[in-house]
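tool=predict chain=A
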Amino acid sequence: MIRRLLSIGSIIVVFPLLEGTVISLPFSFISLIFLATTRKQVSVFFLAIVNGLILDLITLRPLGITGIFYIVFLFLLFLYERKYETSTLPFILSAVFVGVLIYSVIFSIAHITLQLILSIIIVTLVYSLSAKIFRSSSVRRDTLFT
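tool=predict ok
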């Protein structure tokens, strides 16, 4: 429970702070896409609204612009959930690529190519890390109860 609250807290508070002040990579958007494709929970929309509002406050954009973009993009991802296997790495990479490209163009963020490359590298690392963690935890759990 505490670990889950810490991860949600980092998505809501830390990622927008990093994105708005230090690094121009869309960490919060990438994490929302990753959560939407792997967890497939509707609570991601609430995170998107809160995350977008915090990011709008930090970057001095009109309130709600980023949140609306997040919600529309996540809604489109949830629509594709019925047709495609959304929790696979190729789908997540393509969603991040298209999402970061559109995000960078709409909000006129510089160095689009560098952001796309770094975003894809980050998502690949997080996906492979989470796959190893969940695979090893399921193996341990199975061997514990046998």
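The chain is about 80% helix and 0% strand. The two ends are 26 Å apart (CA to CA).
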